[in-house]
Amino acid sequence: MKISNSISLIYNERHAKYASLKKEVDNAFNIIKHNRWHYESRLKELVTFALKAETGRFSKISELEDFLGCCLVVENSTTLSIAEKLIYAHFNIIERRPRTKNFTHKDPSSFIFDDIRLYAKLKKEDYLPDREFDDCIFEIQLKTFLQHAWAIATHDLVYKGDCYNWANNRIAYQVKASLEHAELSIFSAQEMAKRIDISDNPEYKKINKILKIIGKHWNHDSLPKDTVRLAKNIFNILQVANISLDELRQVCESSDLIGSQPLLSLSPYQAICISCMIYHTEKMHNIADKKIFLSTEALEHIPIDIYEIFKEKILTPQ
Fold first, then answer.
1. Where is the RelA/SpoT domain (predicted)?
2. Which of 28, 192, 225, 248 is deepest in the core (most CB within 10 A)?
3. Is 262 in contact with 218 (CB distance < 8 Å)?
4. What is the chain's percent helix, strand, coil content, to nearest 5?
5. How many other β-carbons are positioned within 10 Å of the β-carbon of residue 85?
6. Half-sphere exposure of 134 (CA within 13 A, CB side)
7. Is 25 within 8 Å of 66 (Cβ atoms)?
8. Secondary structure class of 241 (helix, strand, coil)
9. 185 and 192 in contact (C-beta within 8 Å)?
10. Contact 139, 69 (CB under 8 A)
11. Rounded distance, CA 306 to CA 115, Å?
12. For residue range 117-165, what is the model confidence (pLDDT) as tens digits?
């Protein structure tokens, strides 16, 4: 596509300045964003810049607010407000679109692009010298992973090609409607769960009881973030050994490795396994081909006579 020299000149003048701005913004986001979030940024390409200028919607194409565009992607809609507060704390926000989270220009039947966009400038400390990009505005799009996935998966379907295809657009926005419904379901999952008739399941019930037992003996800092997986591991060993929850409670109360002050050099799973080996030796020995994973350090806490019984069933790090 032929780009006029006057447009190219403006673009090239802006590009170097915004490239420097991009480095600053990228560094800021990589510091403040949570590990599970995704961040990406881009400088507008010359052809895209020219096409946007030709829309005639901008009195000064040298001041396009999205010459630098950033995108922060978070887990789901429940996290959007957390991310937005973080952005407001670290950047000067000039404008938000939509203006508030309770406002939209869209009709109920419309599923066009309406993600959160924040137009921002870098914050500047008074004692620092002026920088060439201090007054440059850039765009921050805030999306969930489902919104981001839709944008990537359907971009070429909607925006690329030699034909403006009604059917392609229809399909793309049908998918967007489905994903928006999924977002709403995630957002209101806890309330929806209360309305599901099936509220009980034997395995889930036992795992929740195990979680309570764990919580009684180990404080929050001594437990992994994924306590459900820990409880499932304990549940599995109890199932094959046919050890009841009441027996587990008694073991946790009686064991020198657990009690009111658990030995913190052992994980809760290892402490429970060793304690069950001591207090329910026969049941634990009858677990057929099931192996009991224990760290090398954990072996020091097994009495010699108990270790001799279980040494063929213990799996150690290799």
1. 41-165
2. 248
3. yes
4. 55, 10, 35
5. 10
6. 9
7. no
8. helix
9. yes
10. yes
11. 61
12. 999 999 987 777 889 999 999 999 999 999 998 888 887 776 666 666 7
CB 158 within 8 A of CB 111: no
Distances 268 to 224, 230, 281 between C-alpha atoms, Å? 10, 8, 19
Coil vs helix vs strand at 28: helix
Range list for CATH 3.30.460.10 in the chain:
5-190
Q: Are 69 and 44 in contact (CB under 8 A)?
A: yes
pTM over 0.70: no
Pull the structure tokens for residue 89.
């704390």
Query: Measured between alpha carbons, how far is 269 from 214 in angstroms, rounded to an integer?
Result: 10
Q: Number of C-alpha atoms within 13 angstroms, CB side, residue 37?
A: 23
Closest CA to 61 of 117, 23, 132, 4: 4
